[in-house]
Design goal:
- Helix content is 58%, strand content 10%.
- It has 325 residues and is α/β, with parallel strands linked by helices.
- The longest helix has 33 residues.
Length: 325
C-alpha cells in the first residue's frame, strides 16, 4: 500500500458513515467499517461500492483506485477489529451526545495506534463529544456535507485540547482525498455551513408556506441564483465584486437600506408547528413526484459537473498566476 494511503476506520454505517467510506475507498485507501447494528453493516458494503464506483462515472475517481480500495475494504466484527490498526478513526454515529461520548470512549480503549479521531457531528462540540476520553488532544469534529463523497467542504472544529499539529495532519489527509478543509476559530451550534443552510432554508420554507412561490420554482430561484454566485465566490466576495468601482463602502451606502428592509421582513420563527410541517412535506412531495432513487443520480451528475468546472477554472487561474510571476 502506498505511503500516501492512510488506514481508516469508519464507525457508524448511516448515510454519513457510508459516504466517508465511499470517499476513502474511491481514493484507494484501506478502510474498515463497523456498526453495532448487524443489518446496517451487511447493507453497507454494497452501497459503499455503488457510491465509490459512481465517482468513476462522474469523473471524480479512477477505476484502478476504486478497485484497490474495494479489495482493501474490511467489515469489522468488533471495534477492536475495525479500529485497532487505523491511523484515522471517523465516528459517524447518530447525532446524540451521550451515544457519541460512549462510542468515542469505547474507541479510545481499542485504538491506541490512532493518530486522529474525528466526530462527524453537525452541531456538537469536540470538547463535549470527547468529554469521556483521556486523549482529547487527538479528537476533533470533522463535519462533512451530504453527499460526503462529492461535496468537498469539511468543517474542522477542534476543542481547546486538540493538538494543533494533528489538525494540520488531518488537513493534509483531507486534501489528499480532494477535500477542502476550513477551520472554525470558535465553536458555535451547527458549525458554519449548517447555520447558513438553516437560515436560507427557513426563509425558503416560509416563502412556500406563505404561498409566495411554489417549491420547484423556489428551488430554481436558489440554485440558479445566489447558489451559483456563492459556488463561484461565496457571499462576501460576491458582494465585494458587485461593489465594483464604488467599493464596499459605496455599495453599502447605496444598498444597505434595501438589505435592512429585507432583513426586517425575514422569517424569525424557530419551530415548525405540526400543521406547517405537514403542509411543507405535502408541497415538496407534490413538486417532486419522481422517486428519490431517480432524483439522486441526477443531482449527483449536476454536482460533479459543477465541481469539474470549478476545478478547471481554479487550475487555469493558478497556471496564469504562475506564468505572470
Amino acid at each position: 500500500m502506498s505511503r500516501d494511503h492512510v488506514q481508516v476506520a469508519v464507525v457508524g454505517m448511516g448515510e454519513v458513515g457510508r459516504g466517508w467510506a465511499a470517499l476513502c475507498v474511491a481514493a484507494g485507501w484501506p478502510v474498515a467499517v463497523y456498526d453495532h447494528e448487524a443489518q446496517a453493516l451487511r447493507d453497507a458494503t454494497a452501497e459503499i461500492e455503488t457510491r465509490a464506483r459512481a465517482l468513476v462515472t462522474l469523473g471524480q475517481a479512477t477505476q484502478s483506485a476504486v478497485d484497490t480500495g474495494m479489495e482493501s475494504l474490511r467489515i469489522g466484527r468488533s471495534l477492536l477489529q475495525s479500529c485497532g490498526d487505523a491511523a484515522w478513526i471517523i465516528e459517524a454515529v447518530r447525532e446524540d451526545l451521550l451515544v457519541k461520548q460512549k462510542v468515542l470512549e469505547a474507541i479510545e480503549s481499542v485504538a491506541r495506534k490512532a493518530r486522529v479521531v474525528t466526530s462527524s457531528s453537525s452541531g456538537l462540540s469536540a470538547k463535549d463529544v470527547a468529554g469521556r476520553c483521556l486523549r482529547q488532544e487527538r479528537c476533533l469534529v470533522a463535519h462533512p456535507l451530504n453527499p460526503v463523497e462529492l461535496i468537498p467542504l469539511v468543517e474542522l472544529a477542534p476543542s481547546p485540547f486538540t493538538d494543533g499539529a494533528l489538525v494540520e495532519l488531518l488537513k493534509g489527509w483531507l486534501r489528499a482525498l480532494g477535500r477542502i478543509p476550513v477551520t472554525l476559530n470558535k465553536q458555535v451550534p451547527g458549525n458554519v455551513a449548517n447555520r447558513i443552510a438553516a437560515a436560507v432554508w427557513r426563509e425558503a420554507i416560509d416563502l412556500v408556506l406563505k404561498g409566495v412561490i411554489d417549491v420547484d420554482d423556489l428551488d430554481r430561484a436558489v440554485s440558479l441564483g445566489p447558489a451559483l454566485s456563492w459556488a463561484a465566490a461565496g457571499p462576501h466576495l460576491t458582494y465585494h465584486l458587485a461593489a465594483g468601482n464604488k467599493g464596499l463602502d459605496g455599495f453599502l451606502q447605496h444598498l444597505l437600506h434595501t438589505f435592512e428592509n429585507t432583513w426586517a421582513d425575514l422569517a424569525t420563527w424557530s419551530k415548525l408547528e405540526p400543521e406547517q410541517r405537514s403542509k411543507l412535506i405535502h408541497a415538496i412531495e407534490r413538486a417532486y413526484e419522481d422517486t428519490v432513487e431517480k432524483l439522486r443520480p441526477l443531482r449527483d451528475k449536476r454536482l460533479a459537473g459543477i465541481l469539474r468546472s470549478l476545478e478547471r477554472t481554479r487550475r487555469t487561474m493558478a497556471t496564469r498566476y504562475v506564468q505572470e510571476e
